[in-house]
Amino acid sequence: MKISKKCRYGIRALIDLAANSENEYMVLGNIAERNGISSQYLEQVFASLRRAGIVKGSKGAQGGYRLNVVPGELTVSEILEALDGSYRIEKEEIPEDIHGRGIALSIQELIIDRLNTQMEQVLKNVTLEDLQKNYQDSKLYNQDMYYI
Q1: Beta-bridge partner residues of 28
Q2: At what angle do helices 39-51 and 5-20 cross, to 10 degrees?
Q3: In sequence order, which residues have a C-beta less than 8 Å from that of residue 124 and are 6 or more positions away?
Q4: Cβ-Cβ contacts under 8 Å for 51 (sequence gap 6 or more)
Q5: Distance between CA 11 and CA 14 in Å, rounded?
Q6: pLDDT block averages, 10 residues each, the chain of length 148
Q7: Which stretches of the chain are DSSP H helices?
Q8: Phi, psi of 67 (to 5 degrees)
Q9: Rounded Cα gap, residues 54 and 45, in angstroms
Q10: In this structure, which of 3, 11, 63, 140 has its CB flanked by the most CB atoms within 10 Å?
């Protein structure tokens, strides 16, 4: 499985939004600049997030985007599905009369199904709040320390 650039950028932008907005609207250009993402590309990403109800947009001088969900209730699984659809490895259609059907079924059951189960377990148990806290903790930890 490969997480697309759209998903990576979307998650980065949502962490930024959660960490910096405090329920205020943020200009997408500022989020894009802080994260080194093209504003035009991020606008496409946020269009998908807006359609999924994850963010809310507002036009005008005080406009921008804000989270439309509680960070602790939004899972990475939901973000990926909003941006790219299903993240699961697709099942292979195995015809009944194919030679080696048992081998193909073994691969499906012992590899693909297990990967999907484990992946789903991780992605459904990590929230935007977890990502935001991890980001903020690492930001504090990585600040320069000065000793006298």
Answers
A1: none
A2: 80
A3: 75, 76, 77
A4: 82
A5: 5
A6: 92 96 89 95 96 94 90 97 92 80 89 96 97 89 58
A7: 5-20, 28-35, 39-51, 76-84, 101-107, 113-125, 128-141
A8: -65, 140
A9: 11
A10: 11
